[in-house]
Fold this sequence. Notes:
Pfam families: DUF4244. By secondary structure, the chain is mainly alpha-helical. It has helices at residues 14-60, 63-77. 0% of the residues are buried.
Amino acid sequence: MKPVVRQRAAPVTEEDHVHQLVAAFRRLRTEAADAGMSTAEYAVGTLAAVAFAGVLLKIVTSPAVQSALSGLITKALK
């Protein structure tokens, strides 16, 4: 077996720090953009749920459905 020779790490230069800062900035900017998309998706989902609730309310409050539900409840209570 060959002995493991450890090499010294190169000294960190100012250029390395700049590259690290740029990489961190890009990562944060990407994460912030994703956060905005999630908020927009929640807004669209909420609007769809409200629209569905409105349609369901119209259906349930229609005279035909109200009489059917009343008949079903009356029959269940007898």
